[in-house]
Each structure stands twice: as structure tokens, then as C-alpha cells.
Amino acid sequence: MFASLARPTARHRRKAALAEQHRLHFALLCKAMDDPALASVLDTYETPVPPEKQRQYLFANALYVNALYYHRIGALTLAELHGHFRVMCQNQVFREYWAATGHHRKSLPVTSEEASLGHIMDELIKELDDSDTDEWWVVGETPGDPS
Hints:
Oligomer: single chain
Radius of gyration: 18 Å
Structural class: mainly alpha
Largest sheet: none
Shape: globular
């Protein structure tokens, strides 16, 4: 009985794999932010992006992926993730990053979780742009968790 308790479940293995992948992703982004030669490998934007702006985009990506990671491991509900997205959208550099990487998200399968979450961000930005209120924290319909 105790041996089965010590055996990691598939869910725990998935969370551990996600944590390791997140650490690796962040380490790679940090290297790219510190070294323009490495950052140039990640330059897949449709228009030229100056090195300083690219470093900002890489950091914006790190923030976005960090929020996705917390959602994927269950530390944030979809509604809480939406709230984080709403805050991120208040920053103009983040919005520029999001616009500059729109073509990246077009390659995602429409049914993927990442495509769905990207669509939530797209809709939120559109709703914020169309809003006639200064109360940005109430803009956008907060999605519910399907679980």
C-alpha cells in the first residue's frame, strides 16, 4: 500500500515535466535577453525589431508563458488567468509584442489549449480597445473554468 503512495501519478509526472520545461524555457530566454547574438535566433518577427525592443519582447514572452504555466499546473483558474491577461494588456510594450507575434499563433492547431488562451487574449485586447471606460479592470467577460 505505501509503495503505491510513493509512486508518482501521471498527473504529478506531467506537472514535473511542465515545471522542467518552464525552467528550460526561462533559462533560454534569459540567455537570449543577455546576448543579442542569441536573441537573433529568436527573431522571427515580420518586420525588423531593434535589439532593445527584442529584449522587451522576450521578457513579455517570459511573463506570458509564466502565466500560462501557472494555469496549466492548476495554480490559476481560467478566470484568474484572464485577470492576469487584463493587467498585462495595460502595458504598451506587451501589446506591441502580442501584435508582433500574432503570426506565430496562427500556426497553432485551433483546438489546442494555447490557441484557445491566445484567443482569450486577442478578445480581451479588442474589448479593451473598444471600451469607453477608464475602468479597465471590469472590461471583458471573465471566462469560467470548464471543469
